[in-house]
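Thread amino acids onto this structure.
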C-alpha cells in the first residue's frame, strides 16, 4: 500500500497563501437558541425572589426548613421555571437565564453547620442543605448549587478542619460568599468603630479563602444608623472597605435591577418558612397569576 505524504499539500497551501489565496475555513457550528423554560412572556420589570434559609432538620419550625419541604422548594421552583443566580448576578443585572426563566437568589445566613456539613470520610452530608441540593442538581443539571452564603466567624460552617475544602467547593460551583459580620452583631446597638471592626474582619476572613467579599447582609435585618458605612465605605486598620449591596430580612420579593425602585442596599427577601408571606405564599401568588416575577425575554 502506498502511503501519501501530507508535505506536498502543505506546500500547495503555503504557495496559495503567498499569492493571496486562503483555504476555505471549516463551517462554524450552528448555535441553537436555548429552549424556552416557560410560556410566560418576558418581563424585566418583574420582581426577583430571594429566599432566606438558616437551618434544615427533620421537622419544620421557626428558622428551620424540613428536609421534605426544602426538596419541595427545589422541585417547585424548578417546575415553575426558576433558575438560580447569585446576589452579584442579580444586583449587577447580569443574570444568565434561558428565555422564559425567572431568577431565584438563594441566600443562606449565619454559615451554620447544617447548611454545609462534611462527614468523617470527607463526603458531603446528604442531609445538609448543600447535600440535598446536590442530589437534586444531579438529576437537574440546569438547576445547579448556585447560592450566596452570608457567613460569620464560626468555622465557617462549624467545621474548621473542613473550612478550606468547603470554600473551595463553593467557589468551584460558582457560589458567592458575603459578609454577615464576625459575631452577628446588631448594627444599631454598637458603635461605629465596632461596626467597622465587625465588617472589616469578616471581609478579611472571606478573602482569606479566595473570595471577593462585596455583598453584605444586615444581621437581624437591622441597618446601621450611619448608612454611609455601606454606601460610601469605611476605613479599618489602615484599609478601605466597600460593599456593593446589602440585603434585609424582609417578607417580600425584591425589585428588579431595572426598576426605578431598585436599591442595592435595600434588597428584600422572603423567609423560607411556613406562615404568611413566606416562600410558599409567594410561589402560590406567582402560580395563580397574582404576582408578576422577572421573566427573561427571548
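Threaded sequence (298 positions):
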Amino acid at each position: 500500500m502506498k502511503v501519501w505524504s501530507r508535505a506536498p499539500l502543505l506546500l500547495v497551501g503555503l504557495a496559495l497563501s503567498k499569492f493571496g489565496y486562503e483555504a476555505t475555513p471549516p463551517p462554524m457550528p450552528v448555535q441553537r437558541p436555548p429552549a424556552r423554560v416557560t410560556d410566560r412572556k418576558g418581563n424585566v420589570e418583574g420582581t426577583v425572589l430571594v429566599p432566606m434559609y438558616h437551618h434544615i432538620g427533620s421537622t419544620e419550625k421557626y428558622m428551620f426548613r424540613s428536609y421534605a419541604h426544602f426538596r419541595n422548594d427545589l422541585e417547585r421552583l424548578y417546575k415553575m421555571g426558576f433558575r438560580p443566580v447569585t446576589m452579584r448576578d442579580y444586583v449587577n443585572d447580569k443574570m444568565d437565564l434561558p428565555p422564559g426563566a425567572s431568577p431565584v437568589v438563594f441566600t443562606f445566613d449565619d454559615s451554620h453547620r447544617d447548611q454545609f456539613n462534611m462527614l468523617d470520610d470527607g463526603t458531603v452530608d446528604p442531609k445538609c442543605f448543600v447535600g440535598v441540593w446536590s442530589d437534586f442538581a444531579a438529576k437537574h443539571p440546569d438547576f445547579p448549587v448556585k447560592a450566596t452564603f452570608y457567613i460569620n466567624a464560626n468555622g465557617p460552617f462549624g467545621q474548621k478542619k473542613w473550612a478550606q475544602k468547603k470554600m473551595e467547593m463553593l467557589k468551584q460551583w460558582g457560589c458567592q460568599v458575603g459578609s454577615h459580620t464576625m459575631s452577628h452583631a446588631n448594627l444599631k446597638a454598637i458603635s461605629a468603630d465596632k461596626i467597622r471592626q465587625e465588617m472589616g474582619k469578616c471581609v478579611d476572613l472571606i478573602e482569606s479563602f479566595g473570595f471577593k467579599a462585596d455583598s453584605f447582609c444586615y444581621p437581624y435585618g437591622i441597618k446601621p444608623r450611619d448608612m454611609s458605612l455601606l454606601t460610601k465605605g469605611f476605613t479599618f486598620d489602615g484599609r478601605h472597605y466597600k460593599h456593593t449591596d446589602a440585603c434585609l430580612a424582609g417578607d417580600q420579593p425584591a425589585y428588579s435591577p431595572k426598576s426605578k425602585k431598585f436599591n442595592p442596599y435595600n434588597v428584600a427577601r422572603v423567609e423560607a418558612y411556613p406562615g404568611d408571606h413566606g416562600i410558599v405564599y409567594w410561589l402560590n401568588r406567582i402560580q395563580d397569576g397574582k404576582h408578576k416575577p422577572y421573566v427573561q425575554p427571548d
